[in-house]
Specification:
single chain; alpha+beta; BirA Bifunctional Protein, domain 2; eight-stranded mixed beta sheet; three-stranded antiparallel beta sheet
């Protein structure tokens, strides 16, 4: 246990809350135990049950994200809200940037879009870095190299962090025009073969996309802080489709150094479309042999009242890792899953 890194983690949490509080956001403490968690095919909730004193048993899950409840709160009329608290994901690695219990920051705005999210994120991260340096009297330890220094330089100048569409990223890093092969599984399979990637019959278009993205694009994105946006619609189940081309969606991720720190959307508020996407995710979970559960109809019913909103999820511990030069989330937690559960 590294006491200085635990102090750094505590300082970052306080600074984040201060940034949002001073800008008129209202902090929410949403439930961590729910009856119907998110439908994401590649996230696994922890399941338990709630037992009433009188006897009834209710299936329950720890949240993988506070997203559903936050959007329901937006629908009641609040317009700038954030939640900073623990989230839980099972079947995750126990090192690197992952722990089954981690801190998630999410914030939402009514009458907003992706540019508002990118501006919020950039201003918040730069401000936290500046204040963190002040708290540490400007000192940098010898082991804090690379990504931290790059972030610090960005925080000290007036340049906007890079905004790059997914289409531009494929063109810049691979020389591939992605638009002509969007939603065309066979065309994407040939792109993979041409680049020496294996292709099997069960690979979906998304699977093939990630074979190239994860090996050739993502490792280079964080060389300077970069917002990657305008994702293929198939990868954005909770995001609005782009108004000029429904094959794309209004989704954004932030990359700094080796880390993906944030993932946000211009929120889908059409209940019919959202229900359809959830049904597709249920079917995908079932095809993968995974547990499925009913759609949260209360969430669906709230969507039209949410308005034109945008929201983003941010990995707090990943920012702490960058600020402390840590290679593993285990180094900055009071007690990691590996420490608690490994024999």
């Amino acid at each position: 246990m590294d006491i200085e890194k635990l102090k750094a983690r505590s300082a970052v949490i306080k600074l984040i809350r201060r940034w949002f509080d001073e800008r008129g956001f209202t902090e929410m403490h949403t439930p961590r135990l729910v009856g119907l968690p998110g439908q994401e095919p590649y996230l696994e909730p922890f399941w338990t049950e709630v037992i009433e004193e009188s006897g009834p048993h209710h299936p329950a899950a720890l949240i993988t994200s506070p997203e559903y409840m936050m959007k329901r709160i937006l629908a009641t009329g609040l317009d700038r809200i954030y939640d900073l608290g623990p989230c839980f994901r099972n079947n995750e690695p126990w090192d690197g940037t992952h722990d089954p219990e981690f801190l998630m920051l999410e914030w939402y705005r009514r009458d907003s879009g992706l540019e508002d999210l990118m501006r919020d994120t950039e201003e918040m991260v730069k401000w936290v870095i500046e204040q963190f340096v002040v708290l540490n009297e400007g000192r940098q330890t010898a082991e804090v190299e690379g990504p931290f220094k790059k972030i610090l330089r960005q925080a000290q100048d007036d340049e906007r962090w890079r905004r790059l569409t997914v289409e531009q990223a494929w063109r810049e890093y691979c020389g591939i025009e992605l638009a002509p092969v969007l939603e065309d599984r066979e065309a994407m399979a040939q792109v993979c073969r041409d680049r020496g990637q294996s292709v099997v019959d069960d690979d979906t278009w998304d699977d093939l996309y990630f074979k190239i993205f994860l090996s050739e694009i993502e490792p280079k994105l964080g060389e300077v802080p970069t917002f990657l946006h305008r994702y293929p619609a198939s990868m954005s189940a909770l995001a609005r489709k782009s108004s000029d081309d429904p094959r794309w969606a209004d989704r954004v991720e932030l990359y700094i150094g080796d880390y993906e720190l944030a993932n946000g959307f211009a929120e889908l508020s059409d209940p019919v479309e959202q229900h359809k996407r959830f049904e597709e995710e249920q079917l995908l979970r079932q095809s993968l042999g995974k547990k499925s559960w009913p759609i949260d109809e209360t969430f669906i019913a709230a969507l039209p009242q949410m308005g034109n909103a945008a929201g983003i999820a941010f990995g707090v511990e990943r920012l702490v890792m960058l600020l402390t030069g840590s290679d593993s989330i285990n180094d900055i937690l009071p007690s990691s899953a590996r420490e608690r559960f490994s024999s």
